[in-house]
Amino acid sequence: VQMVESGGGLVQAGGSLRISCAASDYSFSSYAVGWFRQAPGKERDFVASISWSGDTTYYADSVKGRFTISRDNAKNMLYLQMNSLKPEDTAVYFCNQDRFSGVVVSQPYDSWGQGTQVTVSS
Using one digit for the tens of pLDDT, what is the confidence trace for 45-56? Predict the structure, then answer.
């Protein structure tokens, strides 16, 4: 499964940004997908996920109430709307698809894209 992230950039604290992920595989609409992020010197962390239908979403506590994940299965696209951004949100953001589940991303594919850089200035 090839997934390409885009839309990152530099934004001031308190600002908003929407990042996107384009999936090339026909299976995209059948599986849960999610966003992850990796800050410099840290491990990659879960941010948010959405079920195949879009009915079920999960968020990390650190972004709950500020970020909204959504998907468009007709376009094979995944989105993350980020509001009230904080400097600690600065990271490279990645998307990935679960290998087996349509509800949660607990077993993402081993391969990752290049991600998109989000930098929040204070």
Answer: 999 999 999 999
